[in-house]
Every structure is written in C-alpha cells, then in structure tokens.
Amino acid sequence: MRIGIVGAGGIGCLLGARLAATGQAKVLLLARGEHAARLAEQGLVLDFNGVRETHCLPVIDTANEAALGQLAGCDWLLFACKSQHTRRLAEQLKPYVSADCRLGSLQNGVDNEPILAEVFERPVMGGLMRKFFAHITAPGEVEVRGVLEAVLGDYPTGCGRETTAMVELLRQAGITVYASEDIRRELWRKLVLNNGCNPLAAVTFLDTQRMANDPDMAWVMRNLMREAGAAAAADEVEFSPHELEAVFQWIKGIDPITPSMQADAQRGKPLELDGITGAILRRAGLLGIEVPVTATLHHILLGKYGSSD
User: Fold this and answer.
1) Which residues of the chain have pLDDT under 70?
2) Which residues contact 307 (CB under 8 A, 6 or more apart)?
C-alpha cells in the first residue's frame, strides 16, 4: 500500500514513521521549506517518550510542482496539516491524485472532511488522534509524549471496508485505534475538548493539568466546552451537560499535555484559530446564539498573533 501524508508536522511525521515501520506501507511525506529539506537530507529524528529514533522516508516539498506527480500511485492520501491549509493543499494536489485514491483526515476541527469531500468529489475517512501531543522541535525533529490513540470512521457516519483496513494497519503500527460509526460526533467531541484547552493555553502558557486543577481556569474551560457543545447543534450533533462534564474530567484525569496552540504560540507559528474557535463562532452565528468566552479568547489571540491566513 502506498500512502501520501499531507503535512509533515508532529502528527504527520509520527504517522509516517509508524506506518513505514510496519513494512506494509510505502510512505511519502509532503512537507515544505527547511523542514522538508532536513527530512530529505538527514531523515526524521523522532523523540518518542524519551527514546530517539531516526527514520528515512521519501519527502516531497509541496512547492516542487514537478515532484507532485509521484502522488499518482498513492492508494491513500492522509491529511495531517493544520486545518487552515486544508483547502489550499487539497486544490493544489487534486490534479495529481488518481480517481481511486482514498482520502482521510487526521486533523483538528470539524471542517476538514467536508472540504476534502467537496474538492475531491469523493467519500472521505474522518479521524482524530488523542491522548498525546506531537510537535516539531526543530527542522527534521519531532517530539511525541503520551499514549498513541486514534478514532476513525467514514464521514459523517459508517465504517466501511477500506476504513476498517486502515484501522487494522494503524493498529499494526502500534496505535490503539477505535472504529466509529459516527465519526462526525467524535470530531465534535474532540473540538469540545480543543476549544476548552487550546485558546486558554495559548493565553496562559499553562499545560492541561495546571489549567484543569485551578478553580478559575477550570471555570473558563467548562464554559468554553459548553459553548462548543451548543454550537455543535448546527451540525446536528448534541451533547448533554453530563457528556460535556465527562470531557472535562477526562482531560483533568490524564497526564499533562501541552496543547497545540500553546506550542505554536511559543514557537511563533500561526495558530489554528479558524479551525477551532473560528468553527465555534461560525456555527454560533448560524444558530443565533452567544458564545462570549470563546469569542473573547478568539479575538485576544487574533489581536496578539494575527490571522493564520
């Protein structure tokens, strides 16, 4: 099986390394700039829970249009880029992807799968990663901390043969994977979690444990989650107060995680505002409801760090 991974950030590099190690997949990483050059020249240095590994994987710089023809032989194209880049990369790559190539997303947010389905005009596998963080620490180097877990399913619902085969392949790669018959709901559950943690961490630079165990921070987190849960109704997804509290207790109960927005802010990288807080604001607007805590943090971060566009 030949798999192209769009976006060689923390998640993309981790997936590429683990999939290639199974011996069942030939992996092609799509990256850009200095990171792409370092991956191509020296390989990927992966620090997985303190154990350093080196992986040599084929790399394409997305700025090299001539090299994108290599995508024609891919059986799968997995998107792992930041959500603000999904549409641009999808439109750029579409001419090079065969008609029978399967598409999947393992990204933050709830907009990626609909965008991919629209651009490529075919069904899409939705997915999410959880219980760990994976960040680029330097060009060609990625740090991963936590337990590898994923949820996959056909978007918006169902779990067919090809997605089930990807579930099994990722399990062979050492990832605990759950198959979902309602991946849209699971993506929203993660967005509830992300909205509760990411914008607040980007403001405070505190990890999830410190925020969840501080009464004042916990109040903010719970309200961010409540607002995300209310916005989900725009996509015909509903969460009870009990379910929202369960999400808070889950993040409170696991080992500390550095949310991706905090890591990006610390490195001076664009924040994934549009895919997280922006997704909540857009749907709240459609529903005619107020989400004041989310809106406040969204605009603070937008004012401090600017748009990711």
Assistant:
1) 308-309
2) 270, 273, 274
> Among all chains, which residue has been given the structure tokens 């979902």?
180
**For 233-247, what is each residue's pLDDT tens digit?**
999 999 999 999 999
d(CA 263, CA 168) in angstroms, rounded, equals 31
C-beta separation of 142 from 134 below 8 A: yes
For residue 87, the model assigns a pLDDT of 98
Give the CA distances from residue 248 to residues 19, 63, 143, 184, 223, in Å, rounded to whole numbers and listed in that order: 31, 41, 25, 19, 10
Q: Which CATH class is domain 2-181?
A: alpha beta
What backbone phi and psi angles, to 5 degrees, belong to 67? -80, -15
In the chain, what are the helix, strand and coil shares in percent, each to the nearest 5?
50, 20, 25
Fold of 185-305: N-(1-d-carboxylethyl)-l-norvaline Dehydrogenase; domain 2 (1.10.1040)
